[in-house]
Amino acid sequence: MQNTLKPVVVRNVTIGEGAPKICVPLVGETMEQLKEEANFLTSQDFDVIEWRVDFYEHVEDIEKVKEALAEIRLILPSQPIVFTFRSAKEGGEKEVSTAYYVELNQAIAATGQVDIVDAELFTGDAEVKAIIEEAHKHHVYVIISNHDFDKTPSKEEIISRLRKAQELGGDIPKLAAMPQSVSDVLMLMEATHIMKEEYADRPIITMSMAGKGVISRIAGELFGSALTFGSAKKASAPGQVPVEELRSVLNTLHKHM
Ligand SMILES: O=C1C[C@@](O)(C(=O)O)C[C@@H](O)[C@@H]1O
């Protein structure tokens, strides 16, 4: 049975319709670096910004995070921002307590300065629901994500995690996995296609990482991934294609599909 997919619209960007949207990560460690990166982004062609706050030196001070966000917003006032603390166990830079992780995401959602927050699926059901509840109160969407930087889970497991993210109430389920073989890349793409055709009623995002997985970062319109991460100054994960090359290949595929 095919579901009707309701796109997510943030600040004029429609995620889940047409070519996959391009998300570019901000990975500065200091305020200076963040400002420099944000200024650089003003000349780049992308749709959405992801602030990977786990790179930021003062991530454990909510007030400083808010101040940095305000500075980023001054430089990039109009594009949607995804706020992401990626934990070390899922490929990020740092680990914080679960309580702080929830508090940080809730506090930043409440500022209204971000459009989407990323909550990791394995944080715990109650915690993920608490983040979603607070975010939705402030009209902020939630990506529920899962990452495996070592291997690719089975097809059934990929679908089950994406379904769980949807059942918990996430607006955009997301899964990134490391392929050990070409079959792993094909499996991730097939699982995404099945999820989209049979279970999803909202946009989903998946990617197979590193060189082998690059095809999954450009072919989402075909197999069902609604957004793709490209690099600007510095990549946040292996396999990200520079944004200008990404836009060109996404446009070519879209035009001929
Ligand atoms: O979840 C993702 C996807 C990602 O890991 C990638 O493989 O492009 C990059 C991360 O910054 C982002 O949070």
Automatic annotation (TrEMBL):
Active site: H147 (proton donor/acceptor), K174 (schiff-base intermediate with substrate)
Residues noted as binding 3-dehydroquinate in the record, renumbered to the chain: E50, W51, R52, R86, R217, S236, Q240
SUPFAM superfamilies in alphabetical order: Aldolase
Domain of life: Bacteria
Pfam family, one: DHquinase_I
Pathway assignment: Metabolic intermediate biosynthesis; chorismate biosynthesis; chorismate from D-erythrose 4-phosphate and phosphoenolpyruvate: step 3/7
Functional summary from the UniProt entry: Involved in the third step of the chorismate pathway, which leads to the biosynthesis of aromatic amino acids. Catalyzes the cis-dehydration of 3-dehydroquinate (DHQ) and introduces the first double bond of the aromatic ring to yield 3-dehydroshikimate.
Subunit composition and interactions: Homodimer.
Name the UniProt record assigns to this protein: 3-dehydroquinate dehydratase
Gene expressing this chain: aroD
